[in-house]
Amino acid sequence: MNTFLFVHGAFQGGWCWDQITPALQQKGHKVVAIDLPGSGEDVTPPQDVSLKSYVKKVVSTIEKIDQPVILVGHSMSGMVISQAAEEIPEKIKKLVYVCAFVPENGQAVSDIASGGPKATLNEKDQSLTLIKEFIADDMLNESSEEDLRLFKRNIRPQPVQPFEDKVSLTNIRFGHVPSVYIETTKDRSIPIDLQRQMYATRSFERIYTLDADHFPFYSRKKEFVECLVDIAQPQ
């Protein structure tokens, strides 16, 4: 049995993994899906949220689990799982990047990203709110209407500061944690060319390819779970 720890991307919460959790549990795996600070049901004010607070939440969760975890990060949380691996590499069995940012040492999301989803800035609390009219075309372009409604119903404003905070990574710690990447070829949020440019910067054990949008756990649920089950197999 493996323990998967899922870390959601921007604007979301642990709820985004609900539809693929039962299939993994049926295979005998344990699933933990957290809310990052200021996301999901967490009430931390956006202006108090940083990459450091994200990483602290992930690390504290991992430290309560009695075996090394398969740490899965979606989109923005590629930054989070990378920094967590720097902090406690011995507690992470494998890193799984799901159409996620792959940072080099000293980079922030804002150093890598080009464009991104359309959102409005609230300067008072330093958060971004998605413009819902563009979500279907820009983010869930291969997902069902039901999943689109679910997504719109649950999203929250995204704190800005984690996009500006830079990671601090070393080869001797972060660089020694085995990693895989799940690329999504119909992604309009982090286009496939950018995904491939990023994952070419480090050595991944394997690249999985899904004909999916930015949310393969919606648009390609079965195939996504199959990737995770394969990743969990002994090497």
TrEMBL record:
Enzyme Commission numbers on file: 3.1.1.88
What InterPro entries would the database entry show?
Answer: AB_hydrolase_1, AB_hydrolase_fold, MES/HNL
Q: Which domain of life is it from?
A: Bacteria
Which residues lie in coiled coils? none
**Domain AB hydrolase-1, first and last residues per copy:** 4-226
- State the Gene3D superfamilies in the record: alpha/beta hydrolase
Which of UniProt's keywords are assigned here?
A: Hydrolase
Q: GO molecular function, one example?
A: methyl indole-3-acetate esterase activity
Instruction: Provide the protein name.
Output: Pyrethroid hydrolase
Organism, per UniProt?
Bacillus safensis
Gene (UniProt) = pytH
